[in-house]
Amino acid sequence: MNSAASRVLGVLRSREMGILLAFLLVVVLGTLKNPSFVFSKDGWHDLLITPSILLVVAVGQAIVIITRNVDLSVGSMLGLTAYLAGTIFVKYPSIPWQLVFLIGLAFGGFLGLINGALVGYGKVPAMVITLGTLYAYRGINVAWTGSNRINADQIPQGLQAVGNNSILGIPILTIIALVILLVAAWYMRNMRSGREMYAIGSDPDAAELYGLAKRRRVITAFVVSGAMSGLAGVLYTARYATINSQAGYGFELDAIGAAVIGGVAIVGGSGTVVGAAIGAFLLYTINRALPVIGIPDFWQKAVVGALILGAIVLDRVLAVRQSRKLRETKVETTNETKEVAA
Amino acid sequence: MNSPQLQPVLQLTGVSKSFGSVVALRTADLALFGGSIHALVGENGAGKSTLVKIMAGLYHRDSGSMEIDGQVVNFRTTAEAKAAGIAVIYQEPTLFPDLSVTENVFMGRQPMGRFRRIDRAAMRAEVVRLLDGLGVRIDPDRPADGLSIADQQIIEIAKAISLDARVLIMDEPTAALSGIEVERLFAVARNLRDEGRALLFISHRFDEVFELCDTITVMRDGSYISTSPIATTSVPEIVRLMVGREVTELFPKTVVPIGEPVLEVSHLTRPGVFSDISLTVRSGEIVALAGLVGAGRSEVARAVFGVDPYTSGTVTVRGKRLSSHDTTAAMAAGIALVPEDRRKQGLVLDSTVSTNVTDAVRRTIDTFGLISKRQENSFAQSWARKLEVKTAALDSTAGTLSGGNQQKVVLAKWLASNPKVLIIDEPTRGIDVGTKSEVHRMMCELAGDGMAILMISSELPEVLGMADRVLVMHEGRLTADIPRDKATPETVMFAATHAGEEVA
């Protein structure tokens, strides 16, 4: 088999392909029931824009999980950054709105740096550290916001246009999310530091023996996750233009869910950001498709739960099957060696 | 073969290393030459592993010098040692299971193209070339997960070659390999030697050492003993050098009458771990189970006590047969096990001394299932006094005690259950000399009271000083049963390093 064909086959067999097919299945079912699910201006727009903010957060989350950590504070970072962005527009109405993207990235990155430094130097599991910052960041948000709320008339029209308009039929938010996805996927596949994140998540002790810069990579992963959450906060402001102290509440579970459904192993070392992105699409599209298909609202959470469990069971089955296959190939090669020796 | 060069590639002189008050290395000397395979041998605890870790950059020496090509080096990280051309192949390599063979070889130093992008094609081609050069067939694209230990070692060697390592250290690489895999590894090692690299081969198997190596260095008790060409030495000579110390420490061994068999183990087998183990321990007898680390001694003890299952054979205590994998039955029959790792397996470190002492006898001191602090303390008090546990209060936590006193608490815990058979694994590891002899005295007293004691020990003086009989294990089998008057360092060490011929 030539290498191009085997590569095509590899893509077809990959975990991401399975998730993509599940996503397409949901879309087809929804469309059969109600053609406007896809074939209407609103349907198409909603299909693409709904998962876009989650996609950005899930990419950061996937990178953290790949290093065998987890970031529970993404929802709180998103909310805090969104409120910061709104406050900036209230206080400095003349600020160019484009600048707020950079501020969001930087502020989110700073919050992520706090997470990363605590995990890297504190020797405390990330789950505990980020559970703490989940509450801490949200607490700061609540104390700062109070019962205040930022409204659409305080947000620049230019930013709101980014949040709701399309270019060539594709929402600008989706385009931003896809660009981020491409950059992250390229980085994780082709840069040494990206591969080292996989290595660290695969076996932290071996990473130590290899002399990899473990702490630096883990901190980087958290900074990226924070920056993505910060950017998502700005995108949230652009899309909804209404911000109170509860923006992004519970978002961390959606982000982890998207990554896990997308094939990012919770124990680190395997999975891709592309998988997590497709997971985000699947997760939110199912939420929208269930009422269309006629499944009552209160079943939605259960279906999402089943999806996550299904993804984990599938992972297990695939892992068992693969390790069996690998062991069999080992036996074969051992036999060959024996023949050579004899 | 290239003729060995005159200047050593790697030279260590007078290297020492201590951990707290424990001296792991006193004066280690070693000189490795290109084009040579050098053997390093010594008993357990002779300091070989510490020396390897110093060369690998994991530990930092306290004193002495380490030179590469005559230049003094001070490694602070494993990466620095690697950069200087030193590669270590451990007994069980640590690879990244999720990543491909290719990525494992090149992790952290992948070839890069434009925009610092990893050049995957070049990387794969290089791995294919390396594996071909080693004469092995391993798919470079498969994940490392599921590779045999032998294949994992080959990948480590491929890594070392791609680093152009000039010194390869192999720390007991053959321990987990089958015969055919050993042959393959040796063929690779000879090729590397012929390329002019320096190899250090650490092994307990003398037949392999004499087959593969050209020079041999012996270490004992953290010190350098001798270096000689393989051609001018012999196995008995090396064994004498390895153990050749006087048994100077005093053991309070008292002669007690030996009674009926209490523990009888026959043909106990657990495939791949130990096989066909038969032994008898009589009342009043101390039987030592000697052998090298990894010979399967602790595993036998765990199987007898019912922690691990066994597939065939029997364990009998005072005529009553125990079922496999049943610790409750073993305890009821009167077996007590003092494990090797007392901090992890013998004690609840966060609990108080009195709770620990009463842990094994909770059933006997309770009232309707409840245990009052007062009952617990009064019970523990009597044992603590008997064993002279030095602790401020019985309700201080066990983790704060010294190693020796922790060992006494573990002993107290089991003695409180009034056992007939005491299995004690490395009774004095990590204990200071003073407390050591107290533990030994205690064991003699217990034997005097008619207890049957099976002692696992890696310290030869302890084995020779304490035991009425010495059983020796080698790679999962008993290779010798030596009575006290015949036991010498040489006979024990010989049996520990040879597959047994003399055992009936």
Describe this structure in words.
The complex is a heterodimer of chains A (342) and B (504). Chain A is an all-alpha fold. Chain A is 77% helix and 1% strand. Chain A contains 15 helices and two strands. Chain A has a two-stranded antiparallel ribbon with strand order 1-2. In chain A, a hairpin with a 2-residue loop joins strand 1 and strand 2. In chain A, helix 10 packs across helix 11. The longest helix of chain A is centred in the C-terminal third of the chain and has 42 residues. The C terminus of chain A is likely disordered. Chain B has two domains: 183 residues, Rossmann fold; 237 residues, P-loop containing nucleotide triphosphate hydrolases (Rossmann fold). Chain B is built from 18 helices and 20 strands. Chain B has a six-stranded mixed sheet with strand order 6-7-8-3-9-10, sandwiched between helices. In chain B, a hairpin with a 2-residue loop joins strand 19 and strand 20. In chain B, helix 4 packs across helix 5 and helix 8 packs across helix 18. At the A-B interface, helix 10, helix 11 and helix 15 of A face helix 2 and helix 6 of B.
Descriptors for this entry?
heterodimer; A: mainly alpha; ABC transporter involved in vitamin B12 uptake, BtuC; two-stranded antiparallel sheet; globular; B: alpha/beta; Rossmann fold
